[in-house]
Amino acid sequence: MKAIVQHGYGSPDVLQLKEIARPAVGDDQVLVRVHASSVNAGDWRRVRASPFIVRFVEGVQTPKRPVPGGDAAGVVEDVGRDVTNLRVGDEAYGVRTGAFAEYVSGKHFVPKPANLTFDQAAAVPIAGITALQAVRDKGRIRSGQRVLITGAGGGVGTFSVQLAKAFGARVTAVTNADNLDLVRSIGADHAIDYTREDFTRSGERYDVVIDVAGRPSLSACRRALTPDGTLVLVGAGSGRGGPLARMVAGLVRSRVLRQRLVGFIAKVNKEDLVTLKELIEAGKVTPVIDRTYALSDAAEALRYVETGRARGKVVITV
After folding, report:
1. Between 166 and which of 136, 277, 284, 285 could a Cys-Cys bridge form, CB atoms 3.0 to 4.6 Å apart?
2. Does this model's pTM top 0.90?
């Protein structure tokens, strides 16, 4: 099969389209013929080994899993003997490392939302799960709350806006000028251009701030919270420590403050994929796609996502 293979770390130039063997199928796995995948921030960070700790997880000199990509949507071609939720021929979507390829096998796959194309479905899994867990589990968003979301025009951000609205919140979306109409179109009650207005100094207070952008400092974000509000740290932030340093700092401060500062790494599971499927089929959530690239142009897709200018998701068609 054709797949994108990563040789070492560095710029997206380390990615090459090659012929490799199809993956094996375990007892609890399905084999999916991939129709589409999508790019997440974690993909270019894995290629760049940024932050450096990526090397200790993926491999010091070269990645132990040479095919990147995590999101996949396609048709089931084989199932393990313990699989009960999918059959051969079903349209499925889910998460498995190695998705920038013609085939991928894994256990975190469920039936695809019936009202989405493969391209649309491939844009959902990782960003959608991250947003769902940020909004529902970490932010504990309830109807009537005032919620602010930074980085609202990106992949996780566009899902977070829609999910917060689905949970009944009044949503303020922070993004750049080019995305103001976009975030309003997906449900934001108010939109702020961060290049012209600093939400941390406006005097407005929010019950929950979901920081996807990772730009404002923790102390600045706290100024925008009510005294017992919650700050959910999703974005990687800046600096050498990347997301871990920001999360640790938030954890330390939350121990001495009334405000909750919560950092987390999303946990992939089939239950949340099913929840997203139900919300999508109910018309409450729709993936936003900026542009698509062919599998052979995966390196260019990563370059574009790394710029931070993508509106919603970037899809790779296989």
Report:
1. 284
2. yes
